[in-house]
Amino acid sequence: DYNSDKRHRAASDEAQHRPAGTLSTRRQLYERNFPLYKQPVEVGFFSLDSRRNFFNDQRQLRYYVEPRKSPDFNLRDGYTSRFVKRDDGVKEKLDHVLKWILANRDKIQTRDQTSSSSCALGVDFVTWRGHLTKVLTTPYETQEGWMLAASKFRGTIYISEVETEAARANRMTRSERQEEMMYWGYKFEQYTCADDVDGTPDPGGVVNTNEAFCTVVQTRLADHKLLFSGEVDCRVKDPDAPPAPGCYVELKTSAEICTPKQRSNFHRYKLLKWWAQSFLPGVPQIVAGFRDHDGIVVSIETFQTSKISHLIKNEINCWKPTVCMNFCNDFLSFVKSVVKEDNPRLVYLFEWDPHRDVTYTVHRDSPFTFLPDWYVKDTRS
Ligand code: A3P
Ligand code: MG
Ligand code: MG
């Protein structure tokens, strides 16, 4: 059972002389029963406009329009002439999520209503979905490490990513081809999304990657109460579709699959990331555009998020959802055991590099501090 697993791991940590205050990412340690993960509930949403301004509404939500049988999508179209790229050197940290919280405190569900009426949020963690996706895939990641900053404020732990030196170096030295290919995913969204429920896509328009619609969900992983936000690409048009997040659709592009080796790699690496990203907020379907080397979409396929783990079962040594979720559960427990001081200016920096354990360092009033004054100053009237 779960507790004897924990005892077993503590004993094996000792045997391996692993220092206290680290967390192993070895897959075998996380092969337990699937932990409780409550159905995520949307508690709100917000939009970011073409200049990255925050709006407490769903003005940027788009509608999925199923493409024709043989679409002629050229993902390279408009890259040089109709593309406004978000400045990825600007680090927004949790700011937009915090703006949502300040404007929507009353919408956060607390079982114990006494805590919602005072200062505490009644959740254990606040973060971005994308940060949790990185945590989920950690036991299988061999290329990219991460740094996650954590601060406790009024009983809630906030987790915000810090760009690693390696990620920064990659960002600064991307090839022209890599730069262009990052556009292809957004161009696919433009071919398949309409701004209005009765509208049609406008492939002649400008692709502006500042624009975003984000859902805010609450859920619970074992005994961790979570509130996180994630970008949502679009929703289905059907007004009778299940309520959000059940009506949302994730859009993806991927290289066309021509060989068994390519299929295996797609299952082993890409579907892991796609599954983790959509499973977390409860997005039920993923529409994938498979494209050739020249950015022409050759086929479109829909994946049910809940069926992805069955699709991959034939791969030898493949990833397992239970390992991802148990690791996330243990990581959050580890963070809770470390982040003890309630102080928004104190940052516990958790770091992980592939083939290493998770470690942490503590930073007081440093450049890592990420909870802004406008959030931590008491604005209750
Ligand atoms: P693809 O998903 O087709 O790769 P998302 O899929 O999460 O909605 O992101 C939309 C697009 O942003 C991606 O399309 C890709 O083009 C780009 N993108 C997202 N994350 C990226 C990353 N880490 N590196 C490069 N491009 C990224
Ligand atoms: Mg997206
Ligand atoms: Mg997408």
Key phrases:
about 375 residues; alpha+beta; four-stranded mixed beta sheet; 10 helices; binds adenosine-3'-5'-diphosphate; binds magnesium ion
Describe this entry's structure for a reader.
It is a single chain. The chain is of the alpha+beta class and 381 residues long. The chain is built from ten helices and 17 strands. The strands form four sheets. Strands 2-1-10-11-5-7-6-16-17 form a nine-stranded mixed sheet, with helices on both faces. A four-stranded mixed sheet has the order 12-13-14-15. The chain is globular. The model is unreliable at 1-7 (pLDDT under 50). Bound molecules: adenosine-3'-5'-diphosphate (A3P) and magnesium ion (MG) (2 copies).
* Strand numbers in spatial order across the main sheet: 2-1-10-11-5-7-6-16-17
List each distinct ligand once. Answer: adenosine-3'-5'-diphosphate, magnesium ion
Beta strands, count: 17
The share of residues in helices is 25-40%
Rg from alpha-carbon coordinates? 21 Å
What is the helix/strand order?
Answer: HEEEEHHEHEEHHEEEEEEHEEHHEEH
- Described by the principal axes of the CA atoms, the overall outline is globular
Distance between the termini: 48 Å
Beta-strand proportion? 15-25%
Structural category? alpha+beta
Main sheet properties = 9 strands, mixed
Tally of contiguous helical segments = 10
Poorly predicted residue ranges:
1-7
Average pLDDT level: 94
